[in-house]
Amino acid sequence: MNNLSKNYINGQWVDWNGDTIDVHEAGTGEVIAKVPASDREAMEQAIAAADAAFESWSESTLDQRIKVLEQLHAGLKERAGEIAETVCREVGMPIKLATGIQAGLPATVTKTYLKMLPDFPFTEQCGNSEVQYAPVGVVGCITPWNYPLHQVILKIVPAIAAGCTVVLKPAEIAPQSAYILAEILDGTDLPKGVFNLVCGEGQTVGDTLIKHPAVRMVSFTGSTRTGNLIAHAAADDFKRIALEMGGKSASVILPDADLAAAVKGTINNCLLNSGQTCTALTRMLVPADKHDEACELAAAAVAKMTPGNPLEETTRLGPLASAQQRDKVIDYIKLGIEEGHTLVAGGPEAPEGCDKGYFVKATVFGNVKPGSRLEQEEIFGPVLCVVPYQDEADAIRIANGTQYGLSGAVWSADAEKAKKVASKFRTGQVFVNGGDFNPMAPFGGFGHSGIGREFGKWGLEEFLEVRSLQL
Ligand code: NAD
User: Fold this and answer.
1) pLDDT band at 176, cuts 50/70/90?
2) Which terminus of the chain has a smaller tally of CB atoms within 10 A, N or C?
3) 187: nearest Cα among 57, 66, 50, 75
4) Chain Cα centroid distance, residue 373
5) Active site residues
């Protein structure tokens, strides 16, 4: 990466000579890069470039778009090792997992669109009408730091495939993989101005992007707090929005489930990326008479998850991404103790031997009370709440009892029963008995977790307006 001090605007790397933002290594706390803290003017230049490029790109052929995405896919494969190490250092995800997820998933998702696009019906017949799916216009993409490249790819690949032009503002905590992406796109046949990258703070360049009249859609992944600001800003000039936000997902273990397997599956999901995953199963709902046994199993499972250097192949639990995130999670662990829940494993002290970097102990609370702050609020760290329930109706009520609605899980020996309970979840996805993640299936949230869907044809449709010609 040679361009970290620049923005990518209108097909050019543009120097930035103003303030910069430090990027830290999660495992050591050291500064590993500096990126532009761009101003509103830089963002306005990028929006103007995207606006100017829109007419021509909106009329590009599907073959042109597919060719660019094939070139992107090849570039992502070629630079996969570099992407994995970059994200591992910035975010703290252990390198083995970062290789498969942080570097692997972006290529996989790009491939799913390449497979789908040739058959996607960009026009349909409806009686005497031809229904056309037209690109929505200039799209502002704003992304978070936890899966930094994956979340960008989920936006820019379908946006470009739809014929939209894009301005990306990546997360300032983990921006480097977006630079790798811009370098890859710079080497493709994508016309200038179709993809632009401006790095900086949300309150300045992000704010300009969400309020600019030339931007016709904002596709956002991040906190519910910022999503709320975006929804308000978009309302002023009726921009389209797609929001992927927070979660507090429940894993409901039914009385007939294999308890050990269900606890293991829940813990593995909850601790993935040190709990910095929007879909993390952070509330484990267990029958009251199995609560203590579930807590023992959970404590034994987290005892094996000692935090370590994320660059080592054997590490399974890395640090958090930033000092701010570490402090926030420690405050939640202290709150859990103050609220009177039972501390089963972990705690607020730094793990042994981790005096540098942003490490937090994997922590389990038992007897967590529904409605408490610990049970309701997104922590975004390696903290599991074990919540006892009385009967199935009680479990469903607790599972659906937060403002969020992103994900969930159900475990039962009876697959049909599990499916029936899953269908009562007010969430965008539910994992039934540990079902596999599917990159073609729609992903998104109910309630305060989101508006719109990503992945597959649903992700593409977000970037399309519908026009009907009466013939
Ligand atoms: P955040 O909302 O603080 O930041 C996300 C992005 O928004 C960043 O690029 C930031 O610079 C930008 N931003 C901040 N203030 C802004 C403003 N006023 N105007 C415009 N842009 C602004 O979130 P975060 O801390 O980076 O990410 C963590 C959150 O993201 C968690 O809540 C997590 O659940 C959520 N998340 C959701 C999904 C999903 O798909 N549902 C996926 C990953 C993360």
Assistant:
1) very high
2) C
3) 75
4) 23
5) 244, 278
- Kindly state the helix (H) or strand (E) to which residue 132 belongs, with its residue range: strand 129-135
Tell the residue number behind the tokens 């269900």, with chain if given: 262
- Which is the closest atom of ligand 1 to the Cα of 278? 34
pTM here is: 0.97
Residue 364 DSSP one-character state? E
High-pLDDT (> 90) share of the chain, %: 99
Q: Which of 167, 209, 221 to mutate to test the pocket of ligand 1 (most atoms within 8 A of CB)?
A: 221
Looking from the CA of residue 170, the nearest atom of ligand 1 is: 9
Predicted confidence (pLDDT) per residue in 251-272, tens digit:
999 999 999 999 999 999 999 9
**How many angstroms is it from 101 CA to the middle of ligand 1?**
19
Domains of the chain listed by start with CATH number = 6-245+448-470 (3.40.605.10), 249-438 (3.40.309.10)
Q: For 376-434, write each residue's pLDDT tens digit.
A: 999 999 999 999 999 999 999 999 999 999 999 999 999 999 999 999 999 999 999 99
* Rounded-to-integer distance, Cα 454 and Cα 461, Å: 9
DSSP 277-311: -TT-EEEEEEEGGGHHHHHHHHHHHHHT--B--TT
Do 163 and 462 contact (CB within 8 A), yes or no?
no
Q: Is the CB of 207 under 6 A from ligand 1?
A: yes
Burial 185-213 (b: 16+ CB within 10 A, else e): bbebebbebbbbbbbbebebbbbbbbbbe
Residue 102 is given by DSSP the state: I
Residue whose structure tokens are 């910095």: 276
**What size, in residues, is the chain?**
471
What does the pLDDT look like over 103-152, one tens digit per residue? 999 999 999 999 999 999 999 999 999 999 999 999 999 999 999 999 99
**202 CB near ligand 1 (under 6 Å):** yes
